[in-house]
Write a structure and sequence with these properties.
0% strand, membrane, DUF1232 domain-containing protein, mainly alpha, elongated
Length: 116
């Protein structure tokens, strides 16, 4: 039931996370969050031992991995995230206030009109 709608969305976000991780516009320290969480999940020593009841000890690795992905996603620059998701760019200032736009023309340097 959830597969046809949820599957492509998961693939889209996983692909965007992968691309964000290798994008040079994302801070290096933010890029360390996910590898550190994966390392914590693989490491045999946990902060919360596995023998604690109600599944707290067994699922702390998933909680930390989810928290790392959430932090990574929210700390990345919004325009870079939008670009990797394929969303249209955010609103431009001239779209909000068209009266503040100054019209002009561009001329190539060295054109005959440049010499005054």
């Amino acid at each position: 039931m959830f597969g046809p709608r949820l599957g492509p969305r998961i693939v889209k976000y996983a692909r965007a996370l992968y691309r964000l991780h290798f994008d040079s516009r994302v801070n290096v320290f933010i890029k360390f969050l996910i590898p550190l969480a994966v390392g914590y999940a693989i490491f045999w020593k946990d902060f919360i031992p596995d023998w604690i009841p109600y599944g707290l000890g067994r699922y702390d690795d998933l909680v930390i991995l989810g928290l790392a992905i959430w932090l990574f996603w929210n700390l990345c620059p919004r325009e870079v995230v939008r670009e990797h998701l394929g969303d249209p760019p955010g609103p431009r200032p001239e779209d909000r206030d068209p009266d503040s736009v100054v019209d002009g023309q561009a001329r190539p340097p060295g054109s005959s009109e440049d010499a005054d």
